[in-house]
Amino acid sequence: MSLRIRPNVLKMEPYSPGKPISEVKRELGLDRVVKLASNENPFGPSPKAVAAVQQAALDMHIYPDGAAHDLKVAISRKFGVSFDQIMVGNGSDELIHILGLVFLGGESDEMMMGDPSFSRYDAAAHLAPSQLVKIPLDSEYRHDLDAMAGAVTPNTRMIWIANPNNPTGTIIRKHAFERFLDSIREDIVVVLDEAYHEFAESDPELPNSIDYVKQGRNVIGLRTFSKAYGLAGIRVGFGVAPEGIIDATNRAREPFNVNSLAQAAAIAALDDTEHVIRTVEHNRRGLDRLNAAFRELGAEPMESHANFVFADLKQPARPVFAALLKRGVITRSGDVLGLPNCLRVSVGTDEEIDIFVSELKAVFAAGVSN
User: How many C-beta atoms lie closer than 10 Å to residue 201's C-beta?
Assistant: First the structure.
């Protein structure tokens, strides 16, 4: 190939989403497939969001509001944050990408993250290109904040903390995070990725990024409508940050980065508190059921504050993943994350959890993983 592609791009790994149901049915000739791989809302979107999309579809020949004014107003009212401290994106994934463009400017710049954590942070560093510093999670699979603080150098520009963390579901506590913030230079931006915040916010010790932005700290908070709000398919997320950072992201983003249907759906979803409460309450019960099933089989689930369970099977997870897939249950194997004995399973409907537990027991009974 004669075209010159940037070497750092060729080093990047394409994101690998969970297999879609249609593909598994087609490949394996199955009629029933349960997808518990992508941490989606088992109840789907709010009916209010569906109605809003249907109405907005009548005007989809018109460009969306590039400033997402009404959505930002709705977010401002819901979370008590200034309009000028809000950014929105095509999912929080896009905001991760944009923040990398804004803050990482050269090969000497360093970006830090936990390991394992969300893979799109890797991409932000590689695309710059900048140095990626990965700090292993601690013995309880939480972000090791002391080790992260100790790894800061004069070249450190960004630090990413997913809270709750993906894929482990673990959280850091408020006092530990604030001690960490106090130890970090003010010219380093700390991004608190709170994609699963709604599932954990009942914990009084959970840090809330919005509080730190209001205090003027060097913190950016990211949230998404993909999980608790059930809008994964329409792609919309938001962030809160100091006004100067919002200005920079507006300069770097695409002109119409959040489409009209997504804006309408998100506004309506914010108004449906009951849907979110129902989702969170069901999730709590679902976590208990999944944890109990894993423990019954001798596996060790991590303490999840998200909408999935990450369990140490005490044996290679890839054969279990493959056996479950053949039985029509899509999960996530931890081998690609450097934790080959772990399996991640999303909380589904009661029926989907029944199917998963039954098939998991059958796989273990058959000794597939031995």
Answer: 14
- Among 16-25, 46-55, 255-264, 350-359, the minimum mean pLDDT is found in 16-25
Instruction: State mean pLDDT over 289-311.
Output: 98
47-271: which CATH number, 3.40.50.300, 3.50.50.60, 3.40.50.1980, 3.40.640.10? 3.40.640.10
The architecture (CATH level 2) of 16-44+274-365 comes to Alpha-Beta Complex (3.90)
Whether pLDDT at 159 is above 70: yes
Mean pLDDT of 180-207: 97
More confident residue, 369 or 208: 208
For residue 1, what pLDDT band results from cuts at 50, 70 and 90? Answer: low
Q: Which amino acid is at 311?
A: A
Phi, psi of 133 (to 5 degrees): -110, 115
Identical fold, 16-44+274-365 and 47-271: no
Please name the residues in contact with 259: beta carbons below 8 A apart, sequence gap of 6 or more. 64, 90, 234, 235
3-state secondary structure 324-342: HHHCCEECEEHHHHCCCCE
> What is the separation, in whole angstroms, between the first and last Cα of the chain?
45
At 208, list the tokens. 């809330």
Non-local CB neighbours of 284 within 8 Å, separated by 6+ positions: none
